[in-house]
Amino acid sequence: MPHVNVKFFPKEVSEEQKSSLAESITAALIEHLGTRDGAVSISLEPVEKDVWNDTVVQPEIAGRPELLIKRPDYL
């Protein structure tokens, strides 16, 4: 605990970028949730633009608005 799944439109992400992103997300979770480094897991999940609405927006954003802590401006 916690696990973060970052969904994004497919693009090339270098190992250095992945490592930096993981460090930043982990640091934020440690600071704000009081967790420890070894308890954090993070995944990157590319989602094609043409299925974004059906696989991300509807089930996870519009379908669960009570869980959002930041709402996207495209809704």
TrEMBL record:
Keywords: Isomerase
GO molecular function: isomerase activity
Gene3D superfamilies per the UniProt record, alphabetical: Macrophage Migration Inhibitory Factor
Top-rank lineage group of the source organism: Bacteria
InterPro entries: 4-OT-like_dom, Tautomerase/MIF_sf
Domain 4-oxalocrotonate tautomerase-like: 2-52
NCBIfam families, per the entry: PRK01271.1
Protein name: 4-oxalocrotonate tautomerase
